[in-house]
UniProtKB/TrEMBL annotation:
Keywords: Membrane, Nucleotidyltransferase, Transferase, Transmembrane, Transmembrane helix. SMART domains: GGDEF. The lineage of its organism: Bacteria, Pseudomonadati, Pseudomonadota, Gammaproteobacteria, Cellvibrionales. Residues 228-356 form the GGDEF domain. It catalyses: 2 GTP = 3',3'-c-di-GMP + 2 diphosphate. The keyword Transit peptide does not apply. This is diguanylate cyclase. CDD domains: GGDEF. The chain crosses the membrane at residues 14-32, 44-63, 69-88, 100-124, 130-150, 162-181. InterPro entries: Diguanylate_Cyclase, GGDEF_dom, Nucleotide_cyclase, Rev_trsase/Diguanyl_cyclase.
Length: 356
């Protein structure tokens, strides 16, 4: 029902500020009505009730961020209620007692209708927004406009003309503007989605769907900047050229895809798996304990060898691993893990070697 951005942290923060502002307005209205010489009984009840309700919603928005969408619904419902009740009450009172004029007793809340409508236009998708605005306008404006039409002496008073313009043409203007705003917002959402999609395409290898080398360099730089314990694993497929020569490059591509899937599945979600180049892969992992330097590379090697690859049969990898040091640069770290991989190949392949 609501736009996806309504669950983002920025939206939740804006919602809290909005609720706090509305709570303040309702509190000020409560004080002003208390100071009036002869306040209407509804003016003494409705503003404090709304101030308490919005204060509660403000607290809920702070303590329960995942309630944001439900709170938005309640805000709109309470806003409509806070306008419908006085619209009908004061109109009926003015109808019943000719000595009472609507333009005199109606509270200065006409601008709140415009604010409510703008809120609905911003928060709701197009079809829902139009329906909600039309319903709110019908419940709030029609009794007032009907009364003014039947009482021309009030209609042509300064307050009557202000109420007529607010509840009539001004609202219709917002209904005309709403589709343009919604269309612009949808375009922005589409551009945002396209940007995320293009960024993913730019940072991921099209074949294996792992990070590509360009993204891997950025991740490695961030990895080193954290200055936390971690490890880097570098591995490649043994005799991969023979696989391509014997079975063809399409089969070799499928081997790369299956290998990437197996390795990605066996590692934690917070690890970064990068296609470093050709049949070579780089893995960045936060330290998982003292034995991780031996167990994780062996786990990667074992998951590749555990099951034959379709069309090819058994496939093995050689693995090099090293721990990140406090004084490491990208060059020193990559040089050390590359040296470990070279040692694994020298030891006969299908094994893991550690470079301290």
């Amino acid at each position: 029902m609501f736009y996806s951005h309504n669950s983002e942290p920025g939206f939740r923060q804006a919602l809290v500020w909005l609720l706090a502002a509305v709570t303040l307005l309702a509190s000020l209205a409560t004080i002003l009505h208390r100071l009036e010489p002869q306040p209407q009984w509804l003016d003494l009840i409705l503003p404090p009730a709304m101030a308490c309700a919005f204060a509660g919603l403000t607290l809920a928005a702070l303590l329960r961020p995942n309630w944001s969408l439900s709170i938005v619904r309640l805000v709109v419902a309470l806003g409509v209620l806070a306008l419908v009740i006085p619209a009908w009450h004061y109109t009926i009172v003015s109808y019943r007692d000719p000595a009472i004029t609507l333009v005199t007793i109606f509270p200065p809340i006409t601008s709140l209708l415009l604010l409510l409508i703008m809120l609905v236009i911003v928060l709701f998708p197009p079809r829902s927004a139009f329906a909600v605005v039309l319903l709110a306008w019908g419940l709030i404006s029609l009794p007032i406009l009907a009364y003014l039409w039947l009482h021309p002496e009030e209609l042509w008073s300064p307050r009557g003309k202000e109420m007529l313009l607010t509840f009539g043409p001004a609202l219709l203007l917002l209904l005309v503007i709403a589709p343009f705003y919604q269309r612009a917002n949808q375009q922005l959402e589409r551009l945002k989605y396209d940007h995320v999609k293009m960024q993913r395409l730019a940072e991921h290898d099209a074949l294996t769907e792992l990070y590509n080398r360009h993204a891997g360099m950025r991740l490695l730089k961030q990895f080193l900047s954290r200055l936390e314990a971690g490890m880097v694993v570098l591995f490649d497929i043994d005799h991969f050229k023979d696989i391509n020569d014997r079975h063809g490059h399409p089969v070799g591509d499928r081997v790369l895809q299956e290998l990437a899937r197996r390795v990605r599945k066996t590692l934690r979600d917070d690890s970064a798996v990068i296609r470093w180049g050709g049949e070579e892969f780089l893995v960045l992992l936060d330290d998982a304990g003292g034995q991780a330097l031996q167990t994780i590379p062996e786990r990667i090697r074992a998951v590749v060898k555990a099951q034959d690859f379709a069309e090819v049969g058994p496939v093995t990898i050689s693995v090099g691993v090293t721990r990140v040091r406090a004084d490491d640069t990208m060059d020193t770290l990559l040089e050390r893990v590359d040296r470990a991989l070279y040692r694994a190949k020298q030891q006969g392949r299908n094994c893991a070697a550690v470079e301290p």
